Recover the amino acids of this structure.
């Protein structure tokens, strides 16, 4: 099989790359290979499938009609097992091989399992695929208690869902605070308190020493000796890029596939984008920034480059960014929570929180809870390096209004 | 001036006879030719022509569109539009009206539109006058229109119909002025024979006037884009168009003869197509005439003949294209000539027909004396007596008495 | 061919920050006056500065949609609006991270994100704005309706840089289509190659180079013949002001009096721009031209322009209208009527064509100059037919000073204050005269809908 453009993966980075290619090249053969059996969906939606808020068939990002209208071949159930760059070909688990002119690797990431004694011998869940979500939702129907290992976004979403489903949940997190990658301790504390108020047991700074099977469930033992029994164990301790099939291909890999600012790998005619890619960090170095907006942007850049779009813009650098709703509250985090030489302005009230980080008059990060700011504008202020010195006090006092004014003046 | 025409007679199958003025004869000829659109604007002495046509259309005798426009300029422009869209057209004008029409008028031959228009010839201003004379026609003799000058009312009718056949001939495709003298022919009433409509239809056939240049969405083209200039294809393009026009004019000499012959065969009336020779074969002295003056001139020739003088007459019917061969053949027969003009050539101090006759004489290979007579300006009558005097003066050339300047026939009237 | 969409346009300089739009939006979306519910966010005005705004742009490459993990946000292929589906939204707020314009924001009052939906094509905010600072621009439909139609001119017409006559010609003939005969008297239209050079033509339809003096009549003749043979062919011209108002006027007047079924479009660039910027009968007072120069004894044209479109109404043409290429929708509406009218009677369109070359302004400013002509009432957009009289189609009740327009243009650079003041007076007089005509029309016109429109105009 041959496809001018071959994309491995079918989530945000892959889909935006396909869109970008079609903007330039309306009919060059374009194929999406995905090991998933489902039509494209976002991993981000999975907690909502678990909760029942979203139905699996209602979260499809592209349907068959779209693929037909855009002359895109969508090939589900296609697991890639190896890449031969010298022959410009991929081999699938089925034995089939695919030739490409231009290849995008957007295979995303898979759950990373912690080293916990006995984990291999107990039934546990992860949450990264639609099938994972469907299984977890089925399991939740039977469970009265659960352990969520890991207080990242997936774990916290799942814990909230379980709590709302009247399941006794315990969240165990190695780090001293929940969502440590996005929020500094004060914010995390607000979130943790909210969870606790809603009946979730939050065990932060705790290590799980071992698990063992107990009936249909499990018995977990923490490092301090505490034991917890649960009908259900969900492991959400982070993800790792899906790069196993690249062994021996000669592609450069660090934490993910290393790419330049146009999402090109070290191999000719091969691009990588999204959670599998390690690209420029806004503040230096190369990082895997596994967030949805990052995948969207990198996918667009890669697709534009694959189609020789003369207007392709280089990746400006990854900025941590998240929006998070929990128990009816909203948390927003853009950029860093601190850093050398930065100054911090904090604000907020009893039920809200604001944390602004500035350095030399430039915005480095902002995080809020129950204090809405336009994340997109904040992101732009960081990327553009907008000098906030003239409006610093106004910005600290009212980042939303000042941000909108700056937007209207600078890039509207 | 009311004609004794019964409308119904135009629709009968046999030739009929009417008594009418020249303008009405022209109108009848137009009616028989079934134009699509007639555009009119009145001017003396043409007015009764367009009045007759308007009435024919109003009565339903002529199923043409009548365009009442705001001036002669608009007349010609409207008809150009009609012709470019494929319609057969007619109008009539004269004198100041022709002058006002001039801008689009000179464009028509270049567009190769086979229009027919009566020129009811009138002298040009100033001095202010409203009467006959051929100055208007002579001024435009190099505008590219074919000019045929009629001698009689019957010839007006016949020539008007023939003009469509000539103009629309594929080898010609040029507009024609059928000229008849203001006052003397326009208002001169005689008996004329009106041919049968069906016969005329057979003679003319349906119009096909825009096969070569059209404003038609089914054949989109740019009509008359800029052509010429120095460099590139400009000069040769322009020359190609101009030469085509000139060639059409020369072809017309043949076509005019053929059409006149065909007319004679079909309707029994033979008109000299280019040049008429009258009692010329044994003449040593001849008058050259044009238009309606010829009748009186022939009378004067007959009187001179009765006196034993070897006098003849050469009448020019077709002045554009100039009938060089026919003129050379006629001129070769005589020893001295008097040319009678109804207009003047200001720069040459003579009449224009005189001037062009000199041009033809060159081609005879001999040099003979010629006198320029100018008469009949602004409605003045050129009588038999005037022509007798012209003959006498011309005959005096044989004794070397040449006035060496034009003789103004009505100077002392 | 792609599709274009209607859009909300904000004119910051006209906004006084009153907030009526937000009230209207809150009412439309939540039946409250509380601005917290508004989806258009006018920022508090700072004295001396233009008002700032945050509003959904309905982007063509909407990052909010790309960032949506649930498929709740979609770009509507018919309306161009970014639709939000409550049933699919999971409230993750990632859309707000994707939007650089604060166009989709979390609305704490309702508990989810909200964004402008353009009120299904009838935005409440626009109607509420007392200053015309918000405009709902629907000109996109022109593209949607006509982009697939063939451009009836070849590429490479040699119009001057910034010429709106070429724009007008291409728009017009694209709409008119091939069943047409077009005349182009001497001027910029044939000058740019519409009729052609040396055997080649720039047009794909029958076109002819009429005389400066005869265009209307020649067209009337063409139309006569096609009517006679029963073919539906539009006879039309795009003529300059010289070929219409000056040497061409008799022909135009005659055709108008006869109500000849033709479409006559006068492209008014206020002089003989094609032949070196000489003055014409419609050159405005004070204009520098090469025959009304500026020197010690003369400061531009000393007489007023004749009001040609008004003169045409006095001929009882079946339809007369003025137009500007800065208001293309208005032009299309008029052109549509004119084409229909020209089947049976004369339609006259007077389109203004500021000439960068001859008037001396930067070629990139043509449309802005067109717009300013209307905003200052230097020209008025109106239409007329014998049954309904005259009515404004784009009344400008609070015009900018005409000096704002004059100062954009080099041919007025020499004007003294007295001359500017004189021009302002003549503009005021002209508008007052037109208003009287609209009043007369309103008084005799039965349809109430028209009365409202005219009433608005008159009350200003």
């Amino acid at each position: 099989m041959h496809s001018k453009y071959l994309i491995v993966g079918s989530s945000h980075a892959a889909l935006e790359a396909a869109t970008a290619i079609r903007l330039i090249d309306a009919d060059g053969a374009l194929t999406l290979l995905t090991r998933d059996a489902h039509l494209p969906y976002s991993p981000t939606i999975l907690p909502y499938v678990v909760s029942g808020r979203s139905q699996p068939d209602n979260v499809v990002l592209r349907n068959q009609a779209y693929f037909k209208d855009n002359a895109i071949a969508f090939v589900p159930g296609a697991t890639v097992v190896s890449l031969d760059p010298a022959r410009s070909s991929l081999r699938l688990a089925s034995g089939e091989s695919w030739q490409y002119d231009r290849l995008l690797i957007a295979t995303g990431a898979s759950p990373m399992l912690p080293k916990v004694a006995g984990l291999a011998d107990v039934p546990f869940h992860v949450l990264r695929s639609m099938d994972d979500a469907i299984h977890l939702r089925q399991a939740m129907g039977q469970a009265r208690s659960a352990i969520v290992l890991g207080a990242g976004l997936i774990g916290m979403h799942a814990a909230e869902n379980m709590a709302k489903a009247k399941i006794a949940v315990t969240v165990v997190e190695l780090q001293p605070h929940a969502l440590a990658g996005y929020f500094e301790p004060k914010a995390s504390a607000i979130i943790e308190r909210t969870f606790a108020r809603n009946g979730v047991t939050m065990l932060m700074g705790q290590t799980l020493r071992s698990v063992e099977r107990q009936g249909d469930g499990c018995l977990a033992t923490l490092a301090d000796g505490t034991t917890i029994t649960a009908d259900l164990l969900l492991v959400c301790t982070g993800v790792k890029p899906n790069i196993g099939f690249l062994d021996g291909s000669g592609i450069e890999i660090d934490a993910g596939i290393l790419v330049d600012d146009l999402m090109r790998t070290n191999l000719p005619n091969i691009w990588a984008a999204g959670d599998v890619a390690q690209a420029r960090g806004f503040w230096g170095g190369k990082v895997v920034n596994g967030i949805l907006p990052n995948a969207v942007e990198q996918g667009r850049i890669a697709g534009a480059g694959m189609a020789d779009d003369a207007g392709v813009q280089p990746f400006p650098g990854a900025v941590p960014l998240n929006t998070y709703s929990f128990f009816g509250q909203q948390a927003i985090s853009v950029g860093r929570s601190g850093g050398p030489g930065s100054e911090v302005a904090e604000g907020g009230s009893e039920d809200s929180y604001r944390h602004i980080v500035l350095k030399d008059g430039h915005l480095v990060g902002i995080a809020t809870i129950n204090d809405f700011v336009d994340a997109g504008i904040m992101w732009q202020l960081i990327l553009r390096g907008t000098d906030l010195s003239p409006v610093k006090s106004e910005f600290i006092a009212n980042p939303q209004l000042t941000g909108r004014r700056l937007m209207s003046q600078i890039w509207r | 001036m009311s004609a004794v025409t019964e409308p119904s007679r135009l629709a009968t199958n046999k030739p009929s006879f009417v008594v009418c003025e020249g303008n009405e004869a022209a109108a009848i000829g137009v009616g028989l030719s079934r134009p699509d659109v007639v555009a009119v604007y009145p001017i003396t002495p043409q007015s009764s022509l367009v009045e007759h046509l308007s009435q024919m259309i109003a009565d339903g005798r002529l199923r043409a569109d009548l365009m009442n426009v705001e001036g002669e300029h608009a007349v010609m422009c409207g008809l150009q539009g009609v012709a470019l869209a494929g319609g057969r057209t007619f109008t009539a004008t004269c004198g100041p009206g022709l002058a006002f029409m001039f801008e689009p008028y000179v464009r028509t031959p270049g567009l190769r539109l086979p229009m027919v228009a009566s020129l009811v010839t009138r002298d040009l201003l100033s001095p202010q006058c409203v009467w006959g004379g051929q100055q208007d026609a002579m001024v435009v003799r190099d505008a590219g229109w074919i000019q045929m000058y009629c001698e009689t009312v019957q010839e007006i009718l016949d020539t008007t119909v023939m003009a469509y056949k000539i103009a629309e001939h594929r080898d010609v495709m040029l507009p024609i002025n059928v000229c008849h003298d203001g006052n003397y022919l326009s208002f001169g009433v005689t008996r004329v024979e009106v041919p049968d409509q069906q016969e005329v239809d057979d003679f003319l056939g349906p119009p096909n006037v825009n096969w070569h240049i059209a404003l038609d969405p089914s054949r989109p083209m740019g009509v008359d884009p800029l052509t010429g200039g120095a460099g590139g294809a400009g000069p040769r393009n322009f020359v190609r168009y101009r030469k085509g026009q000139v060639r059409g004019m020369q072809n017309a000499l043949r076509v005019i003869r053929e059409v006149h012959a065909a007319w004679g065969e079909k309707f029994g009336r033979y008109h000299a197509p280019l040049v008429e020779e009258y009692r010329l074969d044994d003449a040593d002295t001849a008058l050259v005439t044009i238009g309606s003056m010829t009748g009186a001139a022939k009378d004067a020739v007959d009187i001179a003949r009765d006196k034993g003088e070897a006098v003849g007459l050469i009448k020019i019917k077709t002045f554009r294209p100039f009938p060089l061969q026919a003129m050379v053949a006629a001129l070769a027969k005589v020893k001295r000539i008097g040319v009678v003009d109804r207009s003047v050539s200001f720069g040459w101090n003579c009449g224009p027909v005189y001037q062009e006759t000199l041009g033809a004489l060159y081609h005879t290979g001999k040099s003979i004396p010629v006198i320029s007579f100018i008469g009949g300006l602004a409605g003045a009558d050129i009588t038999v007596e005037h022509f007798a005097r012209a003959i006498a003066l011309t005959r005096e050339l044989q004794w070397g008495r040449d006035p060496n300047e034009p003789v103004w026939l009505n100077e002392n009237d | 061919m792609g599709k274009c969409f209607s859009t909300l346009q904000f004119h910051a300089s006209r906004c006084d920050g009153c907030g009526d739009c937000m009230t209207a939006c809150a009412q439309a979306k939540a039946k409250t006056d509380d601005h917290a519910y508004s989806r258009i966010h006018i920022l508090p005005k700072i004295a001396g500065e233009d008002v700032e705004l945050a509003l959904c742009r309905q982007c063509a490459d909407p990052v909010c949609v790309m960032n949506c993990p649930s498929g709740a946000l979609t770009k509507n292929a018919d309306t161009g609006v970014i639709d939000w589906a409550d049933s699919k939204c999971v409230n993750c707020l990632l859309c707000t991270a994707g939007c650089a314009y604060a166009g989709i924001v979390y609305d704490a009052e309702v508990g989810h994100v909200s964004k402008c939906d353009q009120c299904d094509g009838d935005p409440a905010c626009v109607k509420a704005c007392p200053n015309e600072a918000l405009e709902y621009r629907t000109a996109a439909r022109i593209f949607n309706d006509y982009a697939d139609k063939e451009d009836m001119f070849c590429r490479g017409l040699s119009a001057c840089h910034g010429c709106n006559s070429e724009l007008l010609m291409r728009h017009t003939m694209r709409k008119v289509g091939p069943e047409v005969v077009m005349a182009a008297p001497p001027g910029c239209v044939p000058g740019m190659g519409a009729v052609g050079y040396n055997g080649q033509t720039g047009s794909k339809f029958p076109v002819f180079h009429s005389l400066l003096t005869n265009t209307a009549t020649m067209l009337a003749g063409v139309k006569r013949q096609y009517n006679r043979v029963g073919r539906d062919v539009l006879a039309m011209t795009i003529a300059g002001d010289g070929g219409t108002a000056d040497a061409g006027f008799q022909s135009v007047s005659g055709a108008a009096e006869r109500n000849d079924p033709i479409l006559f479009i006068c492209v008014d660039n206020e002089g003989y721009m094609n032949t070196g910027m000489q003055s014409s009968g419609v050159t405005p007072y004070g204009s520098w031209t090469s025959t009304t120069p500026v020197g010690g004894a003369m400061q531009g044209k000393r007489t007023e322009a004749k009001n040609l479109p008004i003169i045409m109404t006095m001929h009882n043409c079946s339809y007369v209208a003025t137009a500007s290429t800065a208001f293309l929708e208005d032009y299309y509406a008029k052109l549509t009527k004119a084409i229909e009218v020209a089947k049976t009677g004369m339609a006259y369109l007077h389109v203004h064509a500021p000439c960068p070359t001859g008037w001396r302004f930067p070629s990139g400013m043509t449309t802005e100059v067109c717009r300013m002509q209307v905003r200052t009432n230097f020209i008025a957009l109106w239409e007329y037919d014998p049954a309904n009289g005259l009515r404004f189609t784009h009344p400008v009740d609070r015009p900018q000073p005409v000096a704002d327009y004059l100062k954009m243009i080099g041919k007025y650079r020499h004007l003294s204050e007295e001359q500017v003041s004189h021009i302002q007076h003549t503009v005021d007089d002209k508008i007052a005269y037109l208003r009287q005509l609209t009043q007369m029309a309103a008084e005799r016109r039965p349809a109430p809908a028209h009365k409202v429109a005219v009433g608005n105009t008159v009350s200003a």
